[in-house]
Amino acid sequence: MKVYYKFFVAAIILSSLCSQAKATSEIKLRVNDEIVSERDFEQRLKFAELTHKVNRKDPNILKQLEQQLIDEKLKLQEGKRFDIKVYPNELEDAVKSALLQNKINPELFKEELKKQGLSYDLIKDQVLSDMVFYRAIRKQYQNRLAPTNAQIEERKAMMLKKQYFLSEIVLSLKNGEDSGAVYGKAIQLLTKLKEGYNFDDLAEQYSQGAGAANGGVIGWVSEDSLNSVLLKALEDFEPGRVTMPLEYDGAYHIVALRAIRDPQNDQKQNGKDLLQLFLPESLTNKKVKSILQQVQMTRGSCDQFLKFAESQMTSPNIKLGIVPEKDIPKPILEAINSVPLLTPTKPVTIKEGALIFMCCGNKELSAIPSDEALKEELENQQVEMVAARRLKELRHSALIER
After folding, report:
1. Do 92 and 55 share a domain, yes or no?
2. Residue 134 or 49, more confident
3. Of 401, 319, 299, 394, the residue nearest 77 (C-alpha)
């Protein structure tokens, strides 16, 4: 997994874009003697207005956008200190991949930005800051990131217990605020969720928890590690649901249950080796008809399906790998099972368009990943924690002139 993709995907909708300051722009602030211009800030604010209908006079929004601009400068400066280089083709691929993961067609996005007076290069600035920062973290702390054999074994042992994949929004009670007032804020956030706001975006904006910058993600937590209040709330809970505000550990917590792993049910799993082709809703009917005709010509060959999907440049993650059947949504699994192996499915409609799948084979899976997979998972978690800690240090030591 490339961590900077995740960072960018989580931030792209709420966040905006930063640009290089022009000499003619007024100075908004300085970050260690590097300028952030009023134009930088205005473009970021304009993008946030377009995508999230934010109120440009909301002081919380203005403060958050300013901090994001400061953080990007700090990340780039850290990369410069460690002589981190990113080549143009790497950056271009990273931007395209991030947009596609967000179900955004890069070419159409370029056109929309142009209409709004924004440059596509602005996105590259944001992606670049994440890329160089995470590379700097790996270079600086490379000897401390790899998990030990003991940590891998501990992770295996945890996977034999029931686990929950959780995200949370934390509203602290430790700052002298009235408990009722904080609870009221939590209810307001639940109302926003019901109105269609994204949980990750609200977590980034309002949560005071350690995982706020990552959309509130906690990750996999074993049942015996959960607070008793939260564990009781999760009884008979289905993935996709969100709890009412729960008071424990000196805060109110709104917790989203993403997934459950139960070893009693997962000892043996059937998996499918899948490829996918994404058809965005922006495609014309004529284009869709052409694609449907051409994709049928790939029948009998996963290699041909892969090449065709790559040629369309619409699909993030064409290679899904071997996916446990229990993790495949029912409509998609039914479509896959309705056709023979190595045969494109009929399009499965989703919110952003449609998906076509090809199953390249079936495989029996172990409930516990390989040591190599666990090592990669643990290392990425460590990188995230070290990066968050290092960014805090950079913020603390930075000279900010407003």
Report:
1. yes
2. 134
3. 394
Tell me how long the chain is.
Answer: 402
Count CB-CB contacts under 10 A for residue 171. Answer: 23
Element (H, E) at 350: strand 348-350
Single out the residue of 315, 320, 311 nearest to residue 99, CA to CA: 315
Spatial CA neighbour of 199 closest among 184, 208, 180, 212: 212
Q: Is residue 257 domain-shared with residue 290, that is, in the same domain?
A: no
pLDDT-derived band at 367 (thresholds 50, 70, 90) equals low
At residue 40, does pLDDT exceed 50? yes
> Do 292 and 347 contact (CB within 8 A), yes or no?
yes
The span from the CA of 119 to the CA of 110, in Å, is 8
Q: Are 17 and 47 in contact (CB under 8 A)?
A: yes
pLDDT band at 25 (very low <50, low <70, confident <90, very high): low
Nearest 5 degrees, angle CA 49-CA 103-CA 328? 130
Domain count, the chain: 3
- In percent, how much of the chain has pLDDT > 90? 43
Tell which of 145, 180, 198 closes a domain.
Answer: 145
Q: Which two tokens stand for residue 312?
A: 């369309």
Q: How confident is the model at residue 293 (pLDDT cuts 50, 70, 90)?
A: very high
Q: What is the pTM of this model?
A: 0.62
Are 21 and 114 found together in one domain?
yes
Confidence of residue 23 (pLDDT cuts 50, 70, 90): very low
Cβ(219)–Cβ(239) below 8 Å: no
Name the residue type at position 313.
M
Say which CATH number the domain at 107 has. Answer: 1.10.4030.10
What CA–CA distance (Å, rounded) separates 148 from 154? 10
Cα 219 from Cα 167, distance rounded (Å):
7
